[in-house]
Design brief:
mainly alpha, about 100 residues
């Protein structure tokens, strides 16, 4: 059995209208009635937006790149570091913060 593929052609005018209505607090069902589209089409546009604007995209602020935990037994604890584990930049930030607050 072959899988069906559905093609979704983005209509920008319709897309912005749906996003505008959603941002003003309208439900998917209300948007359906306002635009005259079916609920599946409305949700496709909203899913497209969600896909393009994923929450939790990784942003690095020059932070630690290694994992917090080394094994599963540490998962239940708060990660801790010794001063030696810090990078030179983090040590400098620590010293500057101490100078500023003391």
């Amino acid at each position: 059995m072959m899988a069906r593929t559905y093609h979704f052609k983005l209509n920008l005018e319709r897309y912005y209208k749906i996003l505008s209505l959603k941002s003003r607090g309208y439900s998917d069902n209300e948007i359906k009635h306002i635009t005259g589209l079916n609920i599946v089409t409305v949700r496709k546009y909203l899913y497209y937006y969600e896909f393009k604007h994923k929450k939790g995209d990784y942003v690095s602020l020059n932070s630690k790149q290694e994992p917090y935990y080394k094994d599963e037994m540490q998962y239940g604890s708060i990660p801790t570091y010794s001063f030696d584990d810090l990078s030179e930049t983090e040590k400098e930030l620590y010293y500057n913060n101490l100078k500023k607050n003391n």
